[in-house]
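Researcher: Structure prediction, please.
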Amino acid sequence: MENVNLFPLFLSLKVSTIATVLAVIIGLPISYYLSRSNGKIADMVDALITLPVVLPPTVLGYYLLVLFGRQSALGKFLEEKLGLLIVFTPTGAVIAAFVVSIPFFIKSARTAFASIEPNLLNAARVLGRSEWNIFFTVIIPLSWRGIVSGITLVFARSLGDFGATLMVAGSIPNETMTMPIAIYDALLAGNQKLANLLVMIMTIVSVTLLYVIKRLEKRIIRGERSFHASRSD
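Model: Predicted structure follows.
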């Protein structure tokens, strides 16, 4: 273990954490909008949000390369005006992880928002509460299990992303090489011992996250059953 470079693990954890925070900040209003809308625009937004789940990660990575590359209009603007490079940087890894993982948060939070009884929200409005107040004091507390489940899914998906991250951030040692890419690099180099060790670390982290998700799902199911049982009494 003492000769193992743990930079890829720390970078993966850092990238996953930042991507998860971004997914929560951007995903919450989108989830709420989708849970309360059934029109064509909502269907189009939902389709675009779901697209990263369907497309291969390499295709997503290609799109991000085209969008943020130094020859693109957006890439030139970010570099010349803000001094911000996306491609082959840790920032590119964060963006790739964010794009491939945010659908999982939105789907989970949207389901939680949609399960709230409209009568509860109407009662809060009758009491004179503003929509912002209702969102933070009624909707979020009632949906916290779904939101936490979505956060866990986003973090796990970000942690394991390979294709999109490799396309956008590359595999520069001690700069952009995340844990999945380090495993691939070790296999290409014929270092089976290092690959086995890195795989073991990733497996332990993944199993721990899946265990947390399972426990959260059971809590949600028990909560729903208790809620319906109390209503039927």
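Model: The CA atoms of residues 99 and 146 lie 20 Å apart.
Researcher: Thanks, that helps.
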